[in-house]
Amino acid sequence: MIEQSKGKRQELHLLQRKLLEINGVLNVESFDSEEFLLQTELGHLTIRGQNLHIKNLNLEQGQVSIEGLVNSLSYLDPGSKSSGKGLMGKLFR
Prior knowledge:
It is a single chain. By secondary structure, this protein is mainly beta. It has one domain: Immunoglobulin-like. The chain has 1 helix and 6 strands, in the order ββββββα. The protein has one helix spanning about 85-90, and strands spanning about 10-15, 20-25, 25-30, 35-40, 45-60, 65-75. A 6-stranded antiparallel beta sheet has the order 1-2-6-5-4-3, with no helix packed on it. The model has no long low-confidence stretch (mean pLDDT about 85).
C-alpha cells in the first residue's frame, strides 16, 4: 500500500471536531448531513458525523472544507466502495 501512495500527498486538518479541511480530493462521490464519501488521491475516504455540510469546495485544487460535528474518518480498502456503507449501502438497505 505504501508504494501506491508514493509521490501523492494528502493533508487533513480537523479543528475541534467542527471544521475538517482536506486536500488531495479528486471527487465528492456522495454526501448528506451524516456522511460524506470522497475520492482522494489515497483512496476513498468516508467522513461520518452530524449536521455535516460543505463550507468550501475547489476540486481544481483538490480542496474540500466540511463543517459540522465530525465523529469518524475512515479510508475504504480499494474496491470496497460498495461494501454496504456509503451511497450504495443507503440505496440498497
